[in-house]
Amino acid sequence: MRGIDSNYGRTLGIRCLLDSDGSEILLLPFSPALLGRPGFLHGGAIGGLLSLACDDAMERQLRVSGLGFQPLSISLQFLRGGRERAVHAAAFVQLGAKIASVNAIAWQSERAKPIASACRKYLVD
Fold it and tell me: Is 18 in contact with 27 (CB distance < 8 Å)?
């Protein structure tokens, strides 16, 4: 397990784990500081986790090529309330000629029941 190399990720305590199939996922441990309304995680913490999952996936994808990337946009969809427990996130990169699209999901109890999703676009150079 490794930490995320960003101040925001370290502040939230986000860690990288390997899934059962060997793919990398991010873990946001529960903390009372992450609560928004009573009993539910703040949407900003969930959105931040998804944003970092997208950035981490892009970095891993382009590490060998030496290409750089710049975020262009992000779209978040909140699907159900995040409860008082850890959140997992995974992201998947689709590279185009100059633009990359990264889709991410966040879940708690079951991966098949995401609490939020994101689509982030990057300029690849």
Answer: no
**Looking at the whole model, is its pTM more than 0.90?**
yes
112: its two tokens: 């098949």
Integer angstrom CA distances of residue 47 from 25, 63, 64, 95, 113 = 15, 24, 28, 22, 17
The residue extents of the domains of the chain are: 2-124
Determine the Cα–Cα distance for residues 67 and 7; give it in Å rounded to an integer: 23
Tell me, which fold does domain 2-124 have in CATH?
A: Thiol Ester Dehydrase; Chain A (3.10.129)
Nearest by Cα to 107 from 85, 75, 76, 74: 85
In angstroms, rounded to a whole number, what is the distance separating the alpha carbons of residues 42 and 94? Answer: 29
pLDDT at 48 over 70: yes
